[in-house]
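Worked example 2:
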Amino acid sequence: MNYLEMLAKLGVSNAHPGGFTATIQQFKEWKINKDSKVLEVGCGTGRTSCYIAKTFGCHVTGVDLSDEMIKKAKERAAYEKMGVDFIQGDVLHLPFNDEQFDVVIAESVTLFANPEKAAKEYYRVLKPEGAVYDREMFQTGSLSEDDLLSFHQFFHTKQLPSKEEWQQIYQHAGFRNLKVWEETSYTKGVVETDFDYPDPMQQLDPTLLMDGEIWELTGEYYEVMQNYAKHLAYALFISYK
């Protein structure tokens, strides 16, 4: 079992920097037109997709590589009576034609793919003048080679860009007018505790209580984040086609 598989089994809906609190704050500041077609990549259990559809009344499509996540997202949409389309798909090979969406949303997803290829896919499926909103962690200090290796081994990532490198990734993909919003020091890890926004639809795998591996992995996660928090920050990276 790896980190992403752990999130799927836990049914975690706020596994991104800042948690769902940051999601709420983002969409208060960066509103979406009701006529927009929105794509959330790495939608997980669909909480953000359903929130966008409910808040703005726009058409939302969610894509995730995990069949388990998509199943839970569809169950959430049915429970919330939201007509969101959830599709199993790879962020590096999005199952859509060119220029289909007005907005792409990503919450700590691009880092776990190939960021350069993912950014090019976002560009491809966006309409002219479309925007991508990508919340990602970034490196603020110099991690040793051993520390970077441990980080990548746990998260199954291949790089940990700096803020400037994230901007370069989007610029090289063709995006313009890049913005960085709400840069925040990384002190709490990826999964935040959102006391003000509990998730009534968190769908835990019923076998979890008997699965020692997942609790061991959870402990390892907190240890990794505690070790590296002082070298990390996160922000919302906004880019326009």
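Residues 3-240 form a domain with the Rossmann fold fold (CATH 3.40.50.150). The chain is about 40% helix and 25% strand.
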